């Protein structure tokens, strides 16, 4: 393998899970579609790797590609909405409260799906625990505006998950 | 916001698929296949252009104005359509996926707006010009071909036109839906 391929493999291994989780959020838990989007994201990573200039962090750069890839695939994901494939979601927890948590996760996916694709991206990044400054860099929205927006989406989402 | 932290905790603890060696190898294969496909596409396009030019040189020897007009309209509309598709593809490929999401969305919206203009003006026009060219050629076909073969050409061209129109309609519908979705989202951003 050449040096580009070695770097690429390292990027793939270190970022696969978080990219996959973000794509799962976009596809309402449809693992097969999320895998396609993850694959598409990493293909774009390869195609743009030579142009990566470290102006933003590697993680920010990959998240941008992932969010934009998911955004470009809106139609395909929306078409699948009719058959939400969230039955097989699993939470790593003890058996006792695993079912309750899985139910809540299913509800969380359903509520995320009600958001516009931009709000969806913002809240998925927030759920991943990214700093709001990084989210604003990924989305290209001012930090102050992102903060207000996250606050609003958090309230909406929490209400929705708890059926309020 | 304890409730949200709880959701965040559940989100981060869900079981997701991890990276595998097999997955990476398969990804690398796809990446190489795409590069190969782009090269093959360029070769196919070059061959098509050579065939078209050779055909035009071949038919330019004919003195029939009707024939040259008909064939010229058909090939001309095809060339315009191919040129626009190539330009669109180039424009789509030039969209940078690593840009800020807001800029990317604007680029994508602008691309689909351009496609909308293509779909509503240039594509129907190219289809009409192609059909006119074919109709101009019909009397020549009737005079020089057997009746059976003439009927076959007539019927197959109608079938081709219908199939091609359905294909175009579906393609246009997909792209217009994407544009609509992007614009809806844009409105939500500006609220």
Automatic annotation (TrEMBL), chain A:
Keywords: DNA-binding, Sigma factor, Transcription, Transcription regulation. Residues 106-157 form the RNA polymerase sigma factor 70 region 4 type domain. Transmembrane segments: none annotated. One of its GO terms (biological process) is DNA-templated transcription initiation. Residues 11-79 form the RNA polymerase sigma-70 region domain. InterPro entries: RNA_pol_sigma-70-like, RNA_pol_sigma-70_dom, RNA_pol_sigma70_r2, RNA_pol_sigma70_r4_t2, RNA_pol_sigma_r2, RNA_pol_sigma_r3/r4-like, WH-like_DNA-bd_sf. Signal peptide: none annotated. It comes from the Bacteria. GO terms for molecular function: DNA binding; sigma factor activity. It holds the Pfam family Sigma70_r2. PANTHER family: RNA POLYMERASE ECF-TYPE SIGMA FACTO, RNA POLYMERASE SIGMA FACTOR HI_1459-RELATED. Belongs to the sigma-70 factor family. ECF subfamily. This is RNA polymerase sigma-70 factor (ECF subfamily). It comes from Maribacter spongiicola.
From TrEMBL, chain B:
Keywords: Membrane, Transmembrane, Transmembrane helix. The chain crosses the membrane at residues 42-61, 67-89, 120-141, 147-169. This is Uncharacterized protein. It comes from Maribacter spongiicola.
């Amino acid at each position: 393998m050449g040096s580009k391929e070695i770097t690429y493999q390292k990027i793939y291994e270190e970022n696969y899970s978080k990219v996959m989780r973000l794509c799962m959020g976009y596809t309402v838990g449809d693992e097969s579609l999320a895998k396609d989007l993850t694959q598409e994201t990493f293909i774009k990573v390869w195609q743009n790797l030579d142009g990566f200039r470290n102006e933003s962090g590697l993680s920010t750069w990959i998240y941008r590609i992932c969010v934009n890839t998911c955004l470009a695939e809106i139609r395909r994901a929306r078409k699948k909405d009719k058959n939400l494939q969230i039955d097989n979601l699993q939470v790593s927890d003890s058996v006792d409260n695993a079912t309750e948590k899985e139910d809540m996760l299913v509800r969380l996916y359903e509520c995320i799906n009600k958001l516009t694709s931009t709000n969806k991206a913002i809240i998925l990044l927030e759920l991943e625990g990214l700093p709001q400054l990084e989210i604003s860099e990924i989305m290209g929205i001012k930090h102050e505006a992102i903060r207000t927006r996250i606050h609003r989406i958090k309230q909406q989402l929490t209400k929705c998950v708890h059926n309020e | 916001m304890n409730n949200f932290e709880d959701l965040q905790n559940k989100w981060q603890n869900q079981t997701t698929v991890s990276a595998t060696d097999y997955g990476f190898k398969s990804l690398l294969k796809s990446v190489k296949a795409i590069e190969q496909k782009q090269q093959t596409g360029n070769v196919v396009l070059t061959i098509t252009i050579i065939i078209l030019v050779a055909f035009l040189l071949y038919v330019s020897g004919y003195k029939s104005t009707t024939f040259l007009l008909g064939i010229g309209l058909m090939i001309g509309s095809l060339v315009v359509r191919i040129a626009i598709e190539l330009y669109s593809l180039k424009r789509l490929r030039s969209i940078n996926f690593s840009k800020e999401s807001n800029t990317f969305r604007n680029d994508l919206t602008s691309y689909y707006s351009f496609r909308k203009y293509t779909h509503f003006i240039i594509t129907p026009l190219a289809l009409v010009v192609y059909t006119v060219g074919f109709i101009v050629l019909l009397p020549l076909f009737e005079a020089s071909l057997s009746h059976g073969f003439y009927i076959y050409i007539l019927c197959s061209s109608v079938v081709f036109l219908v199939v091609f129109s359905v294909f175009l309609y579906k393609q246009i519908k997909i792209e217009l839906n994407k544009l609509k979705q992007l614009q809806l989202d844009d409105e939500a951003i500006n609220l």
